[in-house]
């Protein structure tokens, strides 16, 4: 059986990871911190987890720890805990650098990740810095594991994680328009989600091609696809996405 996983911070990120592991057939014992009792009870009932009496029990009992609290809570949480050599902490805390985390929990090893909501279904990017055998094995069950060579690269992946969340709002705009034109809500949702899923699958299947070259091979001169693309580019419709990404990057760099 795989090593026991302990979770410090039983919120949304923890739920993504636990659900994704269980859906991938990972039946390792998982021990939850008691904070956020309602969510912990849900995971206990639905995903066969246990709930610890306190945070220190999680640390004492588990060789692998998922740190999934908000950045403002990290310092106070780590100061009250005693860690052991040989443990691995997988931090999901945005914007808190590896050196700061490592100093707070020495001599415990620390890596960083940023799971997406789609980790629940074993899909999407799973950024990791630095690579670590135990982290690779665990996180690789949640989607496409991307181990980065530097923390600067990882921070860009964290920006992309925010972008992933915005996509749902974009899909909602498109499906809403289609529904107003006469499709049912279900038809519009399926049409939009599977169209985008197909585009992503094609791009993943052809890594030798740039994303722009795939676009241009479809949106050829005289096609309706090109007509729509030209309209979007005249309106500089993609620029706000870059600006939003830059805003997130600047916030993470502070």
UniProtKB/TrEMBL annotation:
Keywords: NADP, Oxidoreductase
Domain (Pyrroline-5-carboxylate reductase catalytic N-terminal) ranges: 5-95
Domain Pyrroline-5-carboxylate reductase dimerisation: 157-247
Pfam family of the protein (one): F420_oxidored
Stated family: Belongs to the pyrroline-5-carboxylate reductase family.
Name under which the protein is recorded: Pyrroline-5-carboxylate reductase
Organism: Marinobacterium zhoushanense
